[in-house]
Model the fold of this input.
Amino acid sequence: MTHLTITLFGEFSLIPADKPAVNMAGDRPISLLAYLLLHRHTAVSRQHLAYTLWPDSSDSQARANLRNLFFTLRQTIPDADYFLAADSMTLQWRADADYTLDVAEFEAALAAAKTATAETAAAPTDTIALLETAVSLYKGDLLPGNYDDWIIPRREELRQAYLDALHQLVALLEQQQDFRAAARIGQRLLQLDPLDETAYVHLMRLHARSGDRAGVRRVYDQCVTTLRRELDVEPAPTTQAAYEQFLRQEAPVAVVETTPPAATPPAARLRPLPQPGTPFIGREVELAHLAEWLADPGCRLITIVGPGGMGKTRLALETTVAHQRIFPDGVAFVDLAPIRDAGLVAATIAQVAAHSAPERSAHPSQLIPALADKTLLLVIDNMEHVLDASDLLPEILHGAPGVKLLVTSRQRLELAEEWLFDLGGLPLPDAHTPPAENSAVALFVQAAKRANRHFDLTAAEETAVGRICRLVGGIPLALQLAATWVRVLSCAEIAQEIERDLDFLASSQRHLPERQRSMRAVFDYAWQLLTPTEQTVGRRLAVFRGGFTREAAESAAGASLPILSALVERALVNRSGDGRYHLHELVRQYLLHKLLLTPADDQEARQAHAAYFQSLAAEAHAQLEGPEGMRWLAQLDAEIDNVRAALAWALENRAAAVAVSLAGQLWRFWWWRGYWREGLDWLEKVLALADDTAAADGLTPTTLALAYQGAGVLARSSGDYAQARRYHQAGLTIQQQAGNGRGMAASLNSLGNLALFEADYAEAERCFNESLAHYRQVDNERGQQSALNNLAIVAMYRGDFQQARVLHEENLSLVRAAGHAVHIATALGNLGDVYRYLQVYDRAQTVLLESERLLRQVNNQPSLATTLYSLARLALDTGDLAAAAAYFRECLHIYQETPDPVAAADAIEGVAMLAGKWARPLPGAELFGAAAGLRQQTGTAVPHSERAAQQQIQAEMVTAVGETNFQRAWEQGQARPLTAVIHLALSVLAEES
Done:
C-alpha cells in the first residue's frame, strides 16, 4: 500500500510515496481529514461529525453534507479504503495504517522528552535532542486557515505545548552553557511574540553570557525598533537598565539578575478584581478567540456584545486571569452599572484605573495624562446605558498607547476602533457528546447542586436537562435561574414550566442585581430602552420562526432598515453571516407575550406573515422548474419553520384559500427535499378544510387542483399508490372541468407514472402520450421534456433499448438547452441506464458520473440516490464489486434518512444480486424476499429490464442452498419492515467491505 506523509502544522500537505502531493478539493475535505487524523484512535460517530462540522445546519442537511464530503475524501486519497474505515454509524482513520503525521510525531517527541527528563535529570542531552526534534516539526499553527470551532482549542493546546517546549529547551541549553544554541531558540520565541520585552531581556542575557556584546546590541536595537514601529513607545526603564548592565560585563558570567528591585508593582495598587463565587465553566472557544485578539497589537478595543444574562461580565473577568502578566500595570475593572450620568464615566474610570479622586479627573483632559504612561488592560463593564460617553474611549486609545480596552455592552459602541465580539449562549447538548462534557449541562448541574446538595445528573434526568438547555438557548443566567427550582421540582417539570411561562425563570437571591433576578427583568430592562415604534416592530417580529429576511420583516412587521438595525444594536435581534435575522427563543417568548397583549396587532401581524410566505411560495413554485430552481430550494430551506407557522395559523383560523394555496405551491419543494410524509400531512389537512364550503371562500379550481396534484405525487413517493391515484384523478377532474390544458397534462403525467411503477406499460404509454399532446398545445417545453422522458422510460422497461436511447438523447438535448441542473442530471441518469442495458459501458459511466456530480452540487438527495443506484448496477455488471458496494451503501444511507420504499426496493435487489456474486446465497435470498415484500406493500413490480438478471442469480442461489432453504430465507426477508431491510442490506455490505 502507498505510504502517506501528512502535514497539519502550517501549510497542509498530503504526499504519497514517490508521487506528487495530492490536491485537496477545498478546505472542507481537509477539515474532515484533520478531525479523523486527530481522533485516529477512536471510531467517530457520523452524527457527531456532522454536528461538529456543520453546527448551524439541520441534522438531515448536516448528514447529507458529511456523506458528500466523505465521498469526495475517498475519491481524493490514494488507497482510501486502506486508510479510512467506515460503516453505517462511524468513520475512522486507521491508526495502524502506513502513514506519517507531523502532529503525531510532535506529540510523541514531547512525551518521550517528558519521560527522559524524569529518567535522566542529571544528563539532559537526551531530553534536549527530543525537544529539538519536536520543535523542528512545528512549522506553524495547526491548519491556521481553518476557523471551525472544534479546531481552535486543539490549535491553542498544540501551540502552548510548542511554547512550553521552547522555554524548556532554552532553560536546558542555558544549563548546559550552550548559550548560542539557547539564543537561537530564544530568537524563535521572540518571533512568536515580538512585543514581549522579557523575551528581549532574556535573549540579551544569553548573548552576554556567551561574551557576544554585538549580539546584545543587535537584540536591543531590534527591541527599540519593534516597539517604536508597533506601539510608538520606548523600551521600559527596566529593559534599558538591563541592556546597559549587559554591555558593562567584561566576560561571560554565570548569572545576571534582570528582575526589577522588589517594590510594590503598579498592578498591586489597583483595586482587586471581582472574585466570582463559583467556578468558571465552558467558553473555551470564546476565551481562545479573545486571547488571539488581546495578543494582536492592532486590536486595542474589544466590545463583548450580547443580551442580558449571556455572561459577558464573567467572560471578561475570566479573560483577564490569563492576561494579567502581559500588562505590567495590571488589569483595572470598572463597573458602570451604578452610573446613570454619562458625564461621570471619566471620573469613575480615573478613580479605579488612575488612582485619582473623582473630582480631580472628572474630565478626559485630566484622565488621559493619568493613563498616558501605563501598560494596562482596562475592563469597562455595562456600557450600554451610558453610550453617550463612548467617545471617551478613542481618546484613551490615542492618548494612552499602552492601554487596551475590554468593554461589555448589550449593544455595540459604533466606534471605528471597535472589534466586536458577539456572545451567544453556551453550546447545547447533542446526542453525540456525553452530557457531563457539555458546558450548558455542567453549568446547570453546578447551580442545581448549590440549590440541592443531593442533586445528581442521573440518566433519567439527562433528557430533561438537555431540554432545559435547549429551551433557554444556553443562556447562562437562565440556566442558573432554572436550576434553583430543583429543590421542589423535577427537571422534566422545570422544562414544562419554562415552556409555559417566561416568568418561571426568576429568583429571590439577594446577591443578584434587580435587573438579573428574572429573565423577564432582563428583557424589561432592554424593552425600556426602545422607542415606541421599535417596541411595535419588535413584538410583531415574534410571529417569525427560525429567522427571517429583511424583506420579510418589512412586509410582516413594518420593520424599516433603521428600526431593524436598532433592534440588532440592542441585542434583541441577531443578524447571522448569511444576512438573516434571528430571535433568541426566550426573547421571542417575551416579545410574543407583548404581542398577545394587543390582539388586533397580533392578528394583523399573523395575516401579514402568512400573506408574505404565500406570495413567496407562489414565486418559488414558478421558479423551481427553471434554472434558478436550486437558489429557490435553498431559500425555502431557510424559511421552512416560517412556512410551517403560516400553515398552522391558516388552518387554525380556517383560512382555506391561504392554506390550500400555500401548501399546494410547496409540493415540489417537499418532494425534492424528501419531506414526503410532512408535505402529505399538510396537504391532507388543507384539502379536508377545502371540503368545508364555508371555509373555502375565495379558493379557485386551479389552486385546489394543484394541491391535489402535490398530494398525489407525495402519496406515490410514500408508497401509497391507491391514495395517489385518487388524488391525481380528483385533480384531473377539476382541471378537465376548468378546461386547463396544462393542468390536465400534469395530472395525466402523474397517472402515467403510477402505471409505470405498476408495470402497466400500455396504460403508462397512453397517459404519457395524452400528456405530451396537452403540453404541446399549451407550448410548455418543460412539460414536453417530462412526458418525453417518461415515454423513453416505458420503452426501456419494455426492453426496447434502442427506442429508449433515441428518446432519452432527444430529451437530454432539450433539457441542456433549458439549463436546469436537476433535469439535466435526471436525463443523464436515465440515458446512463439505457447505455448500460445496451452494454455501452464507457458511455454509461461518463453520463452517470456527470449526473452524480451535478446532483451533489445541488444537494438533491432523492435524485442522487437514484443515480448512485444506477452507478452501482453499472459496477455490478462490469464486475467491479467493491465500487458497486460503495455506491449501494451510500444510496441506502439516503433511504435511511428519506424512506422511499419503491426506490429502496431497487437498491435492495441490487445488494441481493451483489450477495450472489459474493457467494452469499442465504443473505441474498433474504434480501430478495425483503424487496418482494416492499413491492407487494406498494403495488409495484420489478421492471421488465431487470427481471432476467435477477432470475439468473436467484436460480444460482437455489442451486447453492436448495429450494427449501432459499424459500425460508426469502420469507424471513419478506416479513421485515423497511428500516430493518435497509439495516440488513447495510450489514451485508459491511461484512464484505
